[in-house]
Amino acid sequence: MGKEQKARVIFHVDMDAFFASVEQRDHPEYRGKPLVIGGLSGRGVVSTCSYEARRYGVHSAMPMGEAQRRCPQAVFLPGDYARYREASAEVFQMFTAFAPVVEPLSIDEAFLDMTGMERLIESPRAYAVRLKEEIRQRVGLVASIGIAPNKFLAKVASDLEKPDGLVVVPPDAAGVRAFLWPLPVRRIWGVGEKMARHLAALHVRTVGDLARMDSARLRAQFGAKTAAQLHALSFGLDDRPVAPRSEAKSIGKEETFARDLRRQEDIDGVLLRLAEQVGWRLRCAGKKARTIQIKVRRGDFTTWTRSRTLAAPTCYDEDIYEAAVTLYRALAPAGGIRLLGISAQNFGAAEELSLFDAERPQKKENLYRAIDGLKQRFGENIIGHGHT
Ligand SMILES: [Mg+2]
Description:
Elements: E1 10-15, H1 18-26, E2 35-38, E3 46-49, H2 51-54, H3 64-70, E4 75-77, H4 81-98, E5 101-106, E6 109-113, H5 124-139, E7 143-148, H6 151-160, E8 166-168, H7 173-180, H8 193-201, H9 207-212, H10 215-222, H11 224-234, E9 250-261, H12 264-285, E10 289-298, E11 303-314, H13 317-331, E12 337-347, H14 363-378
Parallel strand pairs: 2-4, 7-8
Antiparallel strand pairs: 1-6, 1-7, 2-3, 5-6, 9-12, 10-11, 10-12
Helix pairs in contact: 4-5, 10-11, 12-13
The site of magnesium ion (MG) has 5 residues, from strand 1.
């Protein structure tokens, strides 16, 4: 507070009834029906259920027997976690394509830090609409998104209009209060059932009641540390950064073809497309790579990888393409090609590249910033280097 800080733009993206939605996507016969996923044995609990089942009062963490009593007509499934992980990987791929910084929270939710993207996108809301649409079209699942100046508010916001929600919290203090204060205190991180009862006994039911509570009284009730935290959150204050949990060791892209490729120009065309996609992802992640690797799989499944270390780390399409083509020419595999892949590895830590920093004078970076701006706005495939 007090000190003027650059407003952050944080998305919290949370898939709606994730496991149940994957099942309904893959099994049309489950659509529109109550569906409960969880341990089917004696002491199993519900891990997810469809919105149809929630109408009967079924919710996650409920004992399976209780769920069966409340909604006996539901379809009960043990869950297919390999398939959920696969869907999760696809969704996270989309997050990384849309946002420069992604912090995974669980298999189906993440914080995306969009700060600095303001110049490249029409508006956070429009960008979120596009992300939701892209997830719906490419993965066949529905996400809810909360947009706010910090993680706490973004998480509260994503939950408010589920399913298929999109809630934007205004970044200014008055807007934050108008959003937050009418909500029940249970919406605050760390306020469980027990603390909510304790607060209700003190006539504190909404976040606004909590914000207005005398701070000495709050400290006396909950101790200095908890009181300070409750007070800050009740004003919507939270300065924790969005921190990617683990750094990717490589950024890559591969394509499998319906029919094996034989003509050199087709192969070069694919390598160029892959180089552009890898370059784009590197620039989004603010990374430059020293090593470029290709993966080649022939129709008979013989597979090769070849890599090459560059004189200087790069994030540019043409450098990646050149390295890939050189590697491919040297390998010169005979026969039809079933799969081609390019990955960039060995990230240069020394040079921090800021894609969204307007003060960079170099022509190449300006050019790529313009290209990437269009890609952000109109999708990854809008511009290519002379191929279709
Ligand atoms: Mg979820």
